[in-house]
C-alpha cells in the first residue's frame, strides 16, 4: 500500500502559490495610482518601547529596571548619546546611519486607564479619540482614508488572512481572501510528510514552506515573518500602495529579555526583507510600526513588565528623513510618570500617521483631522520626509 499523501490534494489544500504566504497572519492591502507606499505594522501585545529604544541617558531607567541590560555598556547600540538601540534591532543600524530609520518616543493612542489589549488594539485601529468603538458600524482609519485618495479602482483595497483587521474595516470597497483550509497535523505527521517527499525537491520545498508557515517546524516563527514581509513586498511592487499587517508575541510579563529579543530580531529581519525585495521602490516607502500601548516603566518580579501607557513607534523606509528620535521626553522620575507607573505620553500615534499620509499621498490636513482621525489635533509637522 502506498501511504504517501496525495500530492495534488495536499497542494490544493494549501493553495500552494505565492498567495498562500500569509496562512497564519492577517494582512491587508490597498492599490493606488501613486508611486509612494505606506506600510503599517501593528505589534500586538504591547511592545516595550523603553527596551526597544532605551533612554539610557535618563538615570532613572537603570534604577527602575535593575535586572535589565541597559545602554551601550550592556550591549545596546548608541544612537544619540541619550538613546540606545536594543541589540535585537542591531541589524537595522545601517538604516539609522542612512537616515532610513527613526523613532517617535513617549507616544500613545488616547486610550487611558484600563490597559486592555483588546480595547487598546480596537482604539489603535479605529483611530478614535479614546472610547472603545461600538461593535456595530465600527471602521478603521485606513478604510476612512481610501475614499480621499484619487482615482481609486476595483482593487483599491483587499484583506488577506482569517482574522479581520479593524484598521481596514469599513464602507470603502475592498476585497478579502483567506485560505480555504488550515494545515492542522501532529508533529509526527509533519515528519512523515517531509520524509515522503525527501526525494522530490519540488514537492519537498512546497511542503517545508507550508509547514513553516503553519508553525509546525522549529524555524516557523522566523519563516512566518519573512514570508509575510516577502508577500507584502510582492504586492507593493505590483499595484498595491498601502499594506497593513500585524505581528503578535509582544506581551512580555515574564522573562522579557529573551522574548523581546526574538520579536525584535524577527521584526528587523522582516524590515530588511521588505527593503531588499522592494528594490528601488524602497526609496518611496514609509513603514509605521505601532503598538496598542507601552509597558510599565519599572520591571516586575518575574523579570518582565506589565501593561502601561506611553510607548515607542518605529519608523523606517527610504522615503523617511530619519536618523532621529522625535517627540518630547517627559522623564522617568516618579513625579513624571503617569499614575506613578507608566511613561507619560507626550505625543499621539495618530498624529504621526496623519502626517505620514499627508506627506505620501497629499491628503488634506482638514480631512485627516476630521474624517480619518475625528477630532485629532495634528500639531506641527514633525518633518518625517526629506
Care to describe what's here?
Helix content is about 30%, strand content about 15%. The protein is an alpha/beta fold and about 375 residues long. It has a single domain, classed as Alkaline Phosphatase, subunit A (3-Layer(aba) Sandwich). Strands 1, 2, 6, 7, 8, 9, 10, 11, 12 and 13 form a 10-stranded mixed β-sheet that branches. Strands 3-5-4 form a 3-stranded antiparallel β-sheet. Strand 4 and strand 5 form a beta hairpin. The chain is globular. It starts with 6 loop residues before the first helix and ends in a 14-residue tail after the last helix. Keywords: Signal.
CATH topology call: Alkaline Phosphatase, subunit A
Strand content: 15-25%
What is the alpha-carbon Rg in Å?
21 Å
From the 3D coordinates, which CATH architecture would you assign? Answer: 3-Layer(aba) Sandwich
**How many DSSP helices?**
12
- N-to-C SSE series? HEEHEHEEHEHHEEHHHEHEEEEHH
Coarse shape = globular
Helix content: 25-40%
The level 1 CATH classification is Alpha Beta
Strands, count: 13
- Tell me about the biggest sheet? 10 strands, mixed
Taking all residues together, what is the mean pLDDT?
Answer: 84
Terminal CA distance reads 66 Å
Decide which structural class fits the backbone.
alpha/beta
- Spans of at least 5 consecutive residues whose pLDDT stays below 50 are 1-24, 177-181, 215-219
Number of domains: 1
InterPro entries: DUF1501, TAT_signal
Pfam families: DUF1501
Signal peptide: 1-30
Keywords: Signal
Amino acid at each position: 500500500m502506498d501511504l504517501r499523501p496525495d500530492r495534488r490534494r495536499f497542494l490544493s489544500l494549501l493553495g500552494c502559490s505565492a498567495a498562500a504566504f500569509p496562512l497564519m497572519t492577517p494582512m491587508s492591502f490597498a492599490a493606488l495610482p501613486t508611486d509612494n507606499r505606506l506600510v503599517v505594522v501593528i505589534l500586538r501585545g504591547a511592545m516595550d518601547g523603553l527596551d526597544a529604544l532605551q533612554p539610557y541617558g535618563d538615570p532613572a531607567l537603570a534604577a527602575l529596571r535593575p535586572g535589565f541590560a541597559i545602554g551601550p555598556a550592556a550591549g545596546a547600540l548608541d544612537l544619540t548619546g541619550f538613546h540606545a538601540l536594543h541589540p535585537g534591532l542591531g541589524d537595522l543600524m545601517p538604516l539609522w546611519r542612512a537616515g532610513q530609520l527613526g523613532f517617535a518616543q513617549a507616544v500613545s493612542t488616547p486610550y487611558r486607564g484600563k490597559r486592555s489589549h483588546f480595547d487598546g488594539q480596537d482604539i489603535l485601529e479605529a483611530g478614535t479619540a479614546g472610547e472603545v468603538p461600538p461593535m456595530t458600524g465600527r471602521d478603521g482609519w485606513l478604510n476612512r482614508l481610501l475614499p480621499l485618495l484619487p482615482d481609486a479602482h476595483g482593487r483599491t483595497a483587499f484583506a488577506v488572512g482569517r482574522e479581520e483587521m479593524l484598521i481596514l474595516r469599513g464602507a470603502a470597497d475592498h476585497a478579502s481572501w483567506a485560505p480555504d483550509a488550515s494545515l492542522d497535523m501532529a508533529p509526527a505527521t509533519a515528519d512523515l510528510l517531509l520524509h515522503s517527499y525527501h526525494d522530490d525537491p519540488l514537492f519537498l520545498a512546497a511542503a517545508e514552506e507550508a509547514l513553516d508557515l503553519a508553525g509546525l517546524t522549529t524555524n516557523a516563527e522566523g519563516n512566518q515573518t519573512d514570508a509575510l514581509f516577502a508577500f507584502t513586498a510582492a504586492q507593493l511592487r505590483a499595484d498595491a500602495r498601502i499594506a497593513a499587517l500585524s505581528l503578535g508575541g509582544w506581551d512580555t510579563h515574564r522573562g522579557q529579555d529573551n522574548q523581546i529579543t526574538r520579536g525584535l530580531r524577527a521584526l528587523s529581519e522582516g524590515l530588511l526583507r521588505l527593503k531588499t525585495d522592494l528594490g528601488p521602490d524602497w526609496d518611496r516607502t514609509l513603514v509605521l510600526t505601532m503598538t496598542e500601548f507601552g509597558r510599565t516603566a519599572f520591571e516586575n518580579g518575574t523579570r518582565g513588565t506589565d501593561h502601561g501607557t506611553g510607548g515607542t513607534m518605529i519608523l523606517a523606509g527610504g522615503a523617511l528623513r530619519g536618523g532621529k528620535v522625535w517627540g518630547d521626553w517627559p522623564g522617568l522620575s516618579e513625579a513624571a510618570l503617569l499614575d506613578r507607573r507608566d511613561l507619560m505620553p507626550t505625543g499621539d500615534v495618530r498624529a504621526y500617521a496623519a502626517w505620514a499620509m499627508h506627506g505620501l499621498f497629499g491628503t488634506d490636513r482638514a480631512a485627516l483631522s476630521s474624517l480619518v482621525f475625528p477630532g485629532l489635533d495634528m500639531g506641527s509637522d514633525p518633518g518625517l520626509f526629506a
